[in-house]
Protein backbone atom coordinates (compact mmCIF):
# COMPACT_ATOMS: atom_id res chain seq x y z
CA UNK A 1 0.00 0.00 0.00
CA UNK A 2 2.86 2.36 0.77
CA UNK A 3 4.32 1.76 -2.71
CA UNK A 4 1.03 2.73 -4.38
CA UNK A 5 0.82 5.89 -2.29
CA UNK A 6 4.39 6.85 -3.18
CA UNK A 7 3.76 6.25 -6.89
CA UNK A 8 0.60 8.39 -6.72
CA UNK A 9 2.51 11.27 -5.10
CA UNK A 10 5.27 11.03 -7.72
CA UNK A 11 2.72 11.11 -10.56
CA UNK A 12 0.88 14.06 -8.98
CA UNK A 13 4.13 15.99 -8.52
CA UNK A 14 5.16 15.30 -12.11
CA UNK A 15 1.80 16.56 -13.38
CA UNK A 16 2.06 19.75 -11.32
CA UNK A 17 5.61 20.43 -12.51
CA UNK A 18 4.56 19.83 -16.13
CA UNK A 19 1.56 22.17 -15.71
CA UNK A 20 3.72 24.95 -14.29
CA UNK A 21 6.39 24.43 -16.98
CA UNK A 22 3.82 24.62 -19.81
CA UNK A 23 2.18 27.74 -18.34
CA UNK A 24 5.25 29.76 -17.46
CA UNK A 25 4.21 32.88 -19.40
CA UNK A 26 3.90 35.84 -17.07
CA UNK A 27 0.64 37.75 -16.87
CA UNK A 28 -0.11 41.01 -15.05
CA UNK A 29 -2.38 40.61 -12.05
CA UNK A 30 -4.11 43.75 -10.78
CA UNK A 31 -3.93 43.38 -7.03
CA UNK A 32 -5.24 46.57 -5.45
CA UNK A 33 -6.75 49.78 -6.91
CA UNK A 34 -5.02 53.04 -6.12
CA UNK A 35 -6.55 56.55 -5.94
CA UNK A 36 -5.12 57.71 -9.28
CA UNK A 37 -6.92 54.95 -11.25
CA UNK A 38 -3.89 52.66 -11.47
CA UNK A 39 -3.50 49.33 -9.80
CA UNK A 40 -0.81 47.65 -7.79
CA UNK A 41 -0.03 44.73 -10.03
CA UNK A 42 2.37 41.85 -10.16
CA UNK A 43 3.53 39.79 -13.08
CA UNK A 44 3.33 36.16 -12.15
CA UNK A 45 3.43 32.93 -14.14
CA UNK A 46 0.00 31.50 -14.91
CA UNK A 47 0.84 28.09 -13.43
CA UNK A 48 1.83 29.59 -10.10
CA UNK A 49 -1.38 31.65 -9.99
CA UNK A 50 -3.52 28.63 -10.81
CA UNK A 51 -1.92 26.55 -8.05
CA UNK A 52 -2.11 29.44 -5.59
CA UNK A 53 -5.80 30.00 -6.12
CA UNK A 54 -6.51 26.26 -6.20
CA UNK A 55 -4.89 26.05 -2.78
CA UNK A 56 -6.83 29.05 -1.50
CA UNK A 57 -10.07 27.52 -2.74
CA UNK A 58 -9.26 24.21 -1.10
CA UNK A 59 -8.36 25.79 2.27
CA UNK A 60 -11.93 26.30 3.61
CA UNK A 61 -12.95 22.75 2.69
CA UNK A 62 -9.81 21.34 4.34
CA UNK A 63 -10.46 23.38 7.51
CA UNK A 64 -14.07 22.21 7.59
CA UNK A 65 -13.07 18.56 7.22
CA UNK A 66 -10.42 18.91 9.94
CA UNK A 67 -13.06 20.40 12.28
CA UNK A 68 -15.49 17.54 11.53
CA UNK A 69 -12.75 14.97 12.12
CA UNK A 70 -11.77 16.64 15.42
CA UNK A 71 -15.43 16.72 16.53
CA UNK A 72 -15.95 13.05 15.65
CA UNK A 73 -12.73 12.00 17.43
CA UNK A 74 -13.88 13.84 20.55
CA UNK A 75 -17.27 12.14 20.32
CA UNK A 76 -15.70 8.71 19.89
CA UNK A 77 -13.42 9.30 22.88
CA UNK A 78 -16.39 10.43 24.97
CA UNK A 79 -18.41 7.36 24.02
CA UNK A 80 -15.46 5.06 24.75
CA UNK A 81 -14.98 6.65 28.16
CA UNK A 82 -18.67 6.30 29.02
CA UNK A 83 -18.59 2.67 27.89
CA UNK A 84 -15.57 2.00 30.10
CA UNK A 85 -17.29 3.67 33.04
CA UNK A 86 -20.48 1.63 32.65
CA UNK A 87 -18.82 -1.71 31.97
CA UNK A 88 -16.32 -1.49 34.86
CA UNK A 89 -17.38 -3.67 37.80
CA UNK A 90 -18.49 -1.47 40.64
CA UNK A 91 -19.10 -2.80 44.13
CA UNK A 92 -22.24 -1.66 45.90
CA UNK A 93 -22.42 -1.66 49.66
CA UNK A 94 -24.41 -4.94 49.80
CA UNK A 95 -21.91 -6.70 47.52
CA UNK A 96 -18.99 -5.46 49.64
CA UNK A 97 -20.57 -6.81 52.84
CA UNK A 98 -21.44 -10.20 51.37
CA UNK A 99 -17.97 -10.56 49.86
CA UNK A 100 -16.18 -9.83 53.12
CA UNK A 101 -16.83 -13.22 54.87
CA UNK A 102 -15.69 -15.11 51.82
CA UNK A 103 -12.36 -13.38 51.83
CA UNK A 104 -11.85 -13.92 55.56
CA UNK A 105 -12.44 -17.68 55.44
CA UNK A 106 -9.21 -19.68 55.86
CA UNK A 107 -8.04 -21.73 52.92
CA UNK A 108 -6.99 -25.31 53.68
CA UNK A 109 -3.41 -25.88 52.72
CA UNK A 110 -2.46 -29.06 50.97
CA UNK A 111 0.77 -30.63 52.05
CA UNK A 112 3.27 -31.87 49.57
CA UNK A 113 3.90 -35.05 51.57
CA UNK A 114 1.52 -37.96 51.00
CA UNK A 115 -0.37 -39.25 54.01
CA UNK A 116 0.99 -42.40 55.66
CA UNK A 117 -1.37 -45.35 56.48
Automatic annotation (TrEMBL):
Residues 84-97 have a biased composition (Polar residues). It comes from the Bacteria. The chain crosses the membrane at residues 7-24, 44-65. It comes from Novosphingobium panipatense. The lineage of its organism: Bacteria, Pseudomonadati, Pseudomonadota, Alphaproteobacteria, Sphingomonadales. The keyword Transmembrane applies. Residues 25-86 form the Lipopolysaccharide assembly protein A domain. Residues 84-117 are annotated as: Disordered. The keyword Cell membrane applies. This is Lipopolysaccharide assembly protein A domain-containing protein. InterPro entries: LapA_dom (IPR010445).
